[in-house]
Amino acid sequence: MSHRNCECRMLPNKSDHSLLVVYTNLQEQKELTVPRPNYSKGQYDELRQFLHLDCDLLLSLHKNDFENMWKVIKEKNTRRS
To answer: Of 8, 11, 36, 76, which sits 20 to 30 A from 55 (CA to CA)?
Structure first.
């Protein structure tokens, strides 16, 4: 910021305070939103039948680790092809 973008003004009535005025040029940036999948609409029973997998047994070792769950499913599906 250069001195042209701000100015110091003295307040009236013999005050020992001053007012700093800063001029800026701000532009609003729109926040990018990423669409999130709606997992509640998934047809998981049909997916299990299609993959011929016992997902409960297969994924029981990866509780709450969804990245590893998908890796296991992908590996099983690639081996079938």
So the answer is: 36
Q: What share of the chain is helix, strand, coil (3-state, %, to 5)?
A: 45, 10, 40
Is position 39 within any domain? no
Q: Which domain holds residue 62?
A: 44-81
Global pTM reads 0.34
Beta bridge partners of 8: 20
Q: Is residue 48 part of a domain?
A: yes
CA distances from 22 to 11, 16, 56 (A): 16, 20, 62
